[in-house]
Amino acid sequence: WSVDGQLLAVSKSTGAIYVYLTKLSMLASVWQQKIAFMTSLCEVSIYDHQTKTKIDNVHLTTEIEPSVLAMSDLYIAVGFNNHALYYRIQSFEEVIKVSEHDYLSTISELQINSHYAAAFMSGRIQLHMIEESEHRSEERHSIMFPLPDTNDGKIVCYCLTKDFLIYGTDKGTLIFFHIEEWQIVNKFDKHKTSIQKLFTEHFGTSVAFIDQKGDGYLYNVFFENPSMIQIPNLPSGTKSILWETSVENEWIFTSFDSDSITTYSVYRDSLKGPQIMFVGTTRLPIFGSVPLLLNAGLLLLLDSSGKIVQTKLETYGFLNDSGEQEYTLDDAIDRLSKAILMKRYDDAMFWAKQLNDSQEWNKFATALLYSLNIDYAIKVFREIGHPGMVMALEEIKHVEDKSLVSAHFAALFGDYDLAQELFLKCGCPLEALNMRRDCMQFEAAMTLAKAYDLEQIPYISAAHAEQLEFTGDSSAAVKFYEQGITKKEKDLHHDQRCFTGLARCYIKVGDIKKGSTIALRLPGKEIKEECAKLLEGLKQWPEAAELFEKAECWDNAAIAYIKMKNWVKVSEILPNVNTPKIHSMYAKAREHEGRFKEACAAYMRAGEWENAIRIQLNQLKSPEQAVKIVRETQSIEGAKMVARFFESINDYSSALQFLVLSKCYNEAFAMAQQNGLMELYAQVIEKVLKDGRDIPLDDLEGAAIFFQNQNNHLLAGKFFMFAQNYDRV
Questions:
Q1: pLDDT tens across 123-156, in order?
Q2: Which domain holds residue 236?
Q3: Pfam families in the record, alphabetically (predicted)?
Q4: Cα–Cα distance between 256 and 315 in angstroms, integer?
């Protein structure tokens, strides 16, 4: 790619990055923590990142002005046109030439490891030993790629690691050649677009590449389903990819373009399998500079003048090693989030404790479960005081099948489709079935039952029917209740449950006869009462009455029979009815039909004495029974009615007595005066007082004055005494 008119070509292997700057005639190669670079046309120096210094006593004067430069732990190589020279680093004081090699055509890129060199020439790679060895057979000294009789396409890019030569072709094929076994051990040919750039981590098992469309992917030989993952949020102008060289950040890599570098974190294990997480972006301090090496967040760059500069990535801000004491709440939350994404859990724990916020703790714990880090999740749940989760995780932390653990966590997070997929993957279909059933996802549960456990179908059908009935779809519920019936002796309780639902649903959909018949056949009173109430709501009185009676719900049964005017059945069950309202309803109905004796008896059972007295006086013409009722019940209103009755037939003596009983003292006094019954009045009053009834003192004193005026001193004295006017006694 072009930066300020300079043509750059970068690739990486085993911690090495090769940079060719045409305009400056400057080359640089990175091996682990050291950078070899040209300081003049034919001189090479080495920068040691660990000591942050240039190693001045390492001096190599090359015999040619190189166009390619490569370095490993033992060798430095330079090349020009089709010729390459190889130098062994004896020590930091001595570098000697050990071999040189001529190739079939011009070398455009050169990579080396501890024993081999790989030269790239117009779509072909020659892999050969740097120094011939007697311990290796002659056939292992050199090999040309692509191999004969293969149809993998033209080689576009490659990387050489300690153990592998890995190359990508214009057909999208990724090939791994194992040097020790001297054969191709892995071929990935599912990518349909040309692979343009290739970047491996130290061991060579993980390969990031960019295809012809500019999309980035990560391939790992050990990943399963999928083995290739697309890199998210990859900038369209991405030029290269750098892997972290520090051990504790081995699954971190970055991509960069002209002005920024983006950090990614690889999750080998998660609920959804291997994943790549976007962490964040840092702007490059110098526009057009070329990143060479990334170690623990410290980025070394080669600027346009050929100087090596370094900067710290903002995505590593959670590293608390800068001595910075002040930070905002948003800074702390951001650092916690990035530490979690990059799986730096000790650092995340530090920031979680600094924040001490329940929401952030939960976010931390959830991320740990998502990444299947059970041990650290237990630690965090202990920290936040969640013993239930600690116990649950302790039980499953020894489960070796990650798919099974992932399935349970996916169910916990509510991703039931993923959970089912994982349960099936690890050979636990019944776990998936039970999960679907417990979550009331009965259609999915039914599909699983048909495939893995036919015996579960009736039980799932019954549960599905109950759900449908609850949501109001009684028609569909009937179908599933019928499917749920097994007619097996061991499932007697289950079948009764289905028949119970059927009885309810038949009634709800209007099939009254079927529903009532099933309900009558079923044992127990509850279902009969339940169905009877449904029928009552539909005003289906005959069926409702019968079911209420069978359920011994006497009050409801009586009401239903009254609605039907089935007096025979009402009279049969009335002795079992204790609710006065029901008796009153029956009494009114019988009175309305002219059945006064039955109405009177019902009014008596309902405690409506006045109505019973009214019927005795007016309809049955039985004042004796009315008087009897009044005397038994001491009904004041009833006494008034009897008094009026006797008054209407001029029986003032009887009327007087019942007026007193009804507490109509003034009326009784007036009647006694008018009809010369004052002595009877005095007797009745005296009897009432002896029975413990209170009479207003004014009424008693008024009667005493009357007797005094009549010179009836005996009665006057009694009434003054009754009125508690003892001075006048």
A1: 999 999 999 877 777 788 899 999 988 888 899 9
A2: 98-320
A3: Beta-prop_WDR19_2nd, TPR_IF140-IFT172
A4: 14
Q: Tell me, yes or no, whether 23 lies in a domain.
A: no
Can you point out the beta strands (E) in 32-132? Answer: 34-40, 43-48, 53-61, 68-71, 75-80, 83-91, 94-102, 109-112, 116-121, 124-129
Count of alpha carbons within 13 angstroms of residue 447, beta-carbon side: 8
Q: Is residue 617 part of a domain?
A: no
CB atoms under 10 Å from CB of 545, counted, come to: 26
Residues paired with 309 in a beta bridge: 301
User: For position 293, which CATH number holds?
Assistant: 2.130.10.10
Residue 598 lies in a domain: no
User: What is the rounded CA–CA span in Å between residue 311 and residue 317?
Assistant: 12
What domain count does the chain have? Answer: 1
Distance from the first to the final alpha carbon of the chain = 134
CB count in 10 Å sphere of residue 265: 22
- A 10 A CB-CB count for 45 gives 17
Q: Give the separation between CA 292 and CA 49, rounded to whole angstroms.
A: 11
Instruction: Centre a 10 Å sphere on the Cβ of residue 245 and count the other Cβ atoms it contains.
Output: 20
Decide: pTM greater than 0.90.
no
Calpha distance 13→103 (Å, rounded): 21
Q: Cα dihedral sign for 492, 496, 499, 505?
A: negative
Instruction: State which amino acid sits at residue 721.
Output: M
Nearest to 213 by CA among 201, 196, 225: 196
Work out the average pLDDT over 171-193: 93
125 or 729: whose pLDDT is higher?
125
Which residue type does 355 have? L
The number of CA neighbours under 13 Å toward the Cβ of 193 is 11
Residue 122: which region, alpha, beta or left (left: phi > 0; alpha: psi -120 to 50)? left
Tokens 């491996």 belong to 200
Instruction: Evaluate whether 294 touches 248 at the Cβ level (below 8 Å).
Output: no
User: Length of the chain, please?
Assistant: 729
Whether 494 maps to a domain, the answer reads: no
